[in-house]
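Now read this:
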Amino acid sequence: MANHKPRGSIALNATPPAARATATPVVRSMRDKTVLRLLFGFILVSLFVFTSFASTQQPVWQWTGATQGEDRWWTAATLMDAYYGFLTFFVWVWFKERRWMPRVLWFVAIMLLGNMAMATYVLVQLARLRPDQPATAILTARNY
C-alpha cells in the first residue's frame, strides 16, 4: 500500500506508470496545471473569437434558431458552447476516473448524450458514496 494515493488527491495522470515514477509530484502538478491552462485558455479564446464573428453576422437578439440560413452562426456558437461545457465536465471525469476504459466510455457517452450522460455520471457517483460521506465528497474523491 506504499503507492496508494489518499482519497481526494487530484492529478492528471495521463503519463504511463513507469514514466510517472520518475516525475516528482511538483513536476506532475506543474504539467497538469499547464495542460489545464492551455485547454481552458483555448476554450475561452475560441469562444470569444467565434461569438464575436457570429455577432458581426447577426445580432444575437435576432436569432430565431436553426430555422433560417443566416441563423447558422448563432446555432454553431451555441453548439460550440455546449460541447465545450461537455468537455469541461469531462475534465472532472478524467480527474475522478483512474482507469482508461471508464475515461474513454464516459467521454463517448458525454459527447453523444450530453447532459443525460452527465446527469447519469453524477447519479452514479452519488450512489457510490457511503452513508457517512457528504455529497461534496463526489467532487474530489477518486474512483479506484
Notes: The first helix runs from residue 17 to 22. The chain has a mean pLDDT of 83. Residues 17-140 form one domain.
